[in-house]
């Protein structure tokens, strides 16, 4: 009798202890194999491109490139890889942004081991999964039509590149460092920085940093 192939998983989580814990928990399941790991969004994209896993288990708040922006790139570059978000963010804003970007599931970090396994297996089976704690909130939001009728928030109006620049500014990078990291010109960085300041009505690096912390792009 032919043995079914294990489902291959890449874990993207910047906290080493949590990443190691997830690896141990999931490796104990006979149908799952951890084939790679990443500590930031860019590394997650690269690992998925190299390894083509069945599933990417992804945190949203990571250094350099955050999870939300990584979701879209993985979906574009490795469309067969399914994405399950594992995060502390409970707000409808983050859930909907993740689903719109291409995530198939959304689980909170206070979930049990059993719930995480259920989420992984549902997503691998081609289904959607939302943690029970947030599912009702999201469904209510759709039924009430809030997202369709309400004007876009300043956060929603930021482009993916502007969010990248915001995150790097909040992490303390200077314009030249941002230009080098993103492989764009200094003038383009200045343009993006000016645009996001106008959209957010924030006019200093300190204000941008506080906003990025509020939105979970970086930690204090």
Task: Please characterize this protein's 3D structure.
By secondary structure, the chain is α/β, with parallel strands linked by helices. It folds into two domains: 7-144, Rossmann fold (3-Layer(aba) Sandwich), CATH 3.40.50.2300; 154-214, Arc Repressor Mutant, subunit A (Orthogonal Bundle). It has twelve helices and six strands. It has a six-stranded parallel sheet with strand order 2-1-3-4-5-6, with helices on both faces. α5 links the parallel β5 (105-108) and β6. α9 (160-170) packs across α12 (205-214). The model has no long low-confidence stretch (mean pLDDT 88).
Q: How would you summarize the topology of this molecule?
A:
Blueprint: E1 7-12, H1 16-27, E2 32-38, H2 41-51, E3 55-58, H3 67-77, E4 82-87, H4 92-101, E5 105-108, H5 113-124, E6 129-130, H6 132-144, H7 146-149, H8 154-157, H9 160-170, H10 175-182, H11 186-200, H12 205-214
Parallel strand pairs: 1-2, 1-3, 3-4, 4-5, 5-6
Helix pairs in contact: 2-3, 9-11, 9-12, 10-11
Question: Could you give the count of β-strands?
Answer: 6
Strand content: 5-15%
Shape: globular
| Global structural class | alpha/beta
């Amino acid at each position: 009798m032919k043995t079914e192939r294990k489902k291959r998983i890449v874990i993207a989580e910047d906290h080493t202890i949590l990443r190691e814990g997830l690896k141990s928990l999931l490796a104990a399941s006979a149908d799952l194999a951890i084939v790679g790991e990443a500590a930031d969004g860019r590394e997650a994209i690269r690992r998925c491109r190299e390894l083509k896993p069945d599933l990417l288990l992804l945190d949203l708040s990571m250094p350099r490139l955050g999870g939300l922006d990584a979701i879209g790139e993985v979906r574009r570059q490795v469309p067969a890889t399914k994405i399950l978000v594992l995060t502390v963010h409970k707000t409808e804003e983050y859930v909907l942004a993740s689903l719109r970007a291409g995530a198939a599931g959304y689980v909170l970090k206070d979930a049990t081991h059993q719930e995480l396994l259920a989420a992984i297996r549902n997503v691998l089976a081609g289904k959607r999964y939302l943690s029970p704690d947030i599912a009702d909130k999201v469904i209510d939001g759709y039924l009430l039509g809030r997202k369709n009728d309400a004007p876009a928030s300043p956060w929603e109006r930021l482009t993916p590149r502007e969010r990248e620049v915001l995150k790097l500014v909040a992490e303390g990078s200077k314009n030249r460092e941002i230009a080098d990291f993103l492989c764009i010109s200094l003038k383009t960085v200045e343009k993006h920085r000016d645009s996001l300041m106008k959209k957010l009505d924030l006019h200093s690096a300190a204000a941008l940093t506080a906003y990025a912390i509020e939105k979970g792009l970086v930690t204090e």
